């Protein structure tokens, strides 16, 4: 899963007269913007077909520049990084160029009044009407912007160059997974710290200035997660009590009342802090639909706990800075149907969702006779719905946990989507037994794990022989981000 983040910080302002002049020189329309006494606080910088985002960004933040650095749009990552570093150090634009973008790049070089064009590898650059020299041949100019400006750039090819260009001008770039400041934790933090700052969206996907202004104001009001911030990881680790209120047989969560559960999990989380460079917070993993040996209502082999019963645990956990994950054991019901029962609880910013495929039965199966399983398609339907819930309610990122100890529990695991920036997708290893057995399960689960998935670990008080200590748990590699106790 891609986790968008702020690339680098700086200070900037966009002076409307300069922006309008720049667009006029380029022969294009000016950026759309909502006017104020000081100019356009919220605007969208529009591009033409085949025009790289780096060119659009340059036009938004640079009135002129004596030099520019070019990089091929198919250049290796290390060349892009070296080019970005050079542009930043010299306060000059970095423009991507390829076979289809030579004309807009030439036009931007003309608009900027560029005399010297440089590249890390000049031989790879197409003919842009200038002799291309090595980057050591270009000097430094003063960054033209002086007041805070955030440049929102859609993630994708060319976003690194656009971000470098914004940084070189003294602006703060944020590469986001969707056209919204809420898509990146640091952009939310930026708009909270700069209530009068300018925000520019690079590309028409950011909508009208009015829409962008609405999104920025929503970001300013966005609630933070327990422990701070707006994305689940890597800003924190979690240690959780697993179980269901009033049901001691299901796990340690149900072996004491709510106040003592909060105190217990905070103490448990504190025992991990000496072994984690990240902050460790307490969490509850609450089983809200419980697998049943009896057919029950609808012959579904699951007992649904009334959301009103869980609500006090959600509210008090939030007050105490404890994260909550709602765990589903759906029997013969599909996961999405059960998840929707808890929609109102999932609207709380500190509440995530866990799917337990062990207890997801096919129509003729029963618990403890077969191990349940779920298809990637069903998981993705839940993920799509949960991500939309986050977007529609302007929530911080949610934890989306998938329990697993057997390879067949998550069929076609490689097809599980990690594309939603609204979700931190986790595989939670539920193996128990002796340390070698647990590590065997762990190593099997992390094999061929697709990028964008975080790993969680479970310790069992009675079924592990002996249970891992906090130090031993944190010595597992890769280090688990979420540790639960059952």
CATH fold-level label of the largest domain: TIM Barrel
Biggest sheet record? 8 strands, parallel, barrel
Q: Mean pLDDT, rounded to whole units?
A: 89
State the separation between the terminal residues, measured CA to CA.
28 Å
Tally of strands: 20
> Architecture of the largest domain, according to CATH?
Alpha-Beta Barrel
The neighbouring-strand order within the major sheet is: 10-11-13-14-16-18-19-20
CATH top-level class of the largest domain: Alpha Beta
What count of helical segments does DSSP give?
A: 14
Radius of gyration: 26 Å
Total separate domains = 2
Specify the structural class.
alpha/beta
**Which blocks of ≥5 consecutive residues have pLDDT under 50?**
1-39
Helix content: 25-40%
Shape call: elongated
